[in-house]
Structure formats: structure tokens, C-alpha cells
Amino acid sequence: MQSLSSKESFFIGLALSNSSNYDSSVCVLDRNSNIILLDKFYYAQDIDYFFETSPYTNSSAICATVPYDNKLLGGKWRIHSKNYKALGDNFKINRNDWTNRVSNRCSETFINLKDKGLKLIRADINQLRQAYGLNSHYLSRTSIDCKNLQTSLKIKFGFQELPDNMLSASALEAIICSIFAMEYVNNIQTSTMFKIDDIPVLARKIDN
Fold it and tell me: How large is the average pLDDT for residues 143-156?
């Protein structure tokens, strides 16, 4: 897989977590689909610093995931129920941000990058995995799911430089985002799911 028609030299994928309690990862691909950087961050300031100082930023197309907003919720049932909670007559709309489905973490960073004229899109990692045929029968982000995903990236996309030891889930997701960034600038078929701060959250066409 090579980028032939775009002017960008690099493609940055950012798998963004919803808080500093969990790791975020960044992947940089060159035009020949070689992984030239994999890194991990916890704090939003570090992500800002990466985009401000990286020699790749100004020559890149960027794809960042949209993290789910799980703040103020505890327990697996409560986290999952947030997406399906019915709003009753006595329910105060958006009290404690209950109805927020996605996090606006690093929004200012992305707005600044867009204002600089960079090609920037957002994506839902679950939709991308489905579109690329990288879903598995295992619970998402478990050890066996990550091992399956890493092996699939090696076989399907030729990333033989990936190590034998298992990478973090966010690193693998960042690789997927960088692939999508490359395909996006080369006019892969997409549709807009919604927008965050006027930045489109795109869905990739599903491979048959």
C-alpha cells in the first residue's frame, strides 16, 4: 500500500484516550507505509508538545480517534448504559454531562492544527476495525484481541517491522488511524458520521 496522489509525506494516527489515566499512542507512516515512529503519551500537554515540535507534523495528514466520554461513571454496567439511557420526563437534560457520548479532549489542539491548514480528520476506532476487517471474536482490548490484531496488521498490511512482543492496544489503534489518514488523502470512499468543532468524524467504506 503506497500513497501516490497526495502531497503529504507522512501520515499520523493518534489513538486518543479519554483521560490521562489511560495511554494514548501516536503512529507515523511514511509514503511507503513504513512505520517510522510509535510513541505513547498520557497527558494532553505531551500530545500538544508532540504536534508542536515533531518534524513530521507540517508535512502530514492526521487522523485522531474520538474517545468515548465515561467521566462521572463507575462500573461496567453504568459505562455501557450511558449509550442507551432513555431520557424521562423528569430527567434534567445533560446534568453532569450525562448525555455526552464522546469526549472533547484535545479539541483545542485539533482546532489549531486545522487552522494551520493541515488535513485533519477524526474517526471511530471500532468502525475502522470493522471497515478493515480487523474485528475479532474476542473482547475488545483484551490480551488475546491485541495479539490477534497485531498479527492481522502484520499479515494483511505487511507491517513486518512490528515486534514479536505484544504492543499496547492504543499503539495498534494508532497504526490503523495512520492507514486511514493515508487512504483519506488518496480519496478512499468515506461518509461523515458527525462533526466535532467543525472537524468531520469519518466512516470508511467497509471492505467486502
Answer: 93
Percent of the chain whose pLDDT exceeds 70: 82
Q: What share of the chain is helix, strand, coil (3-state, %, to 5)?
A: 35, 20, 45
- Residue located via cell numbers 490503523: 176
What would the grid cell of residue 71 be?
467521566
CB 118 within 8 A of CB 62: yes
Place of cell 461496567: 76
Nearest residue to 63 (alpha-carbon basis) of 205, 175, 206 = 175
Structural Rg of the chain based on CA atoms: 17
Cα dihedral 27→184→123→144 (10° resolution): -50
**What residue has cell string 507505509?**
33
Cβ burial of 12 (10 Å; 0-12, 13-18, 19+) is buried
The predicted pLDDT at position 89 comes to 57
Measured CA to CA in angstroms, residue 201 lies from 9, 103, 122, 181 at distances of 23, 13, 4, 12
The arrangement of strands across the sheet holding 24-30 comes to 35-41, 24-30, 10-15, 60-65, 119-123, 199-204, 190-196
Number of other CB atoms surrounding residue 22 within 10 Å:
14
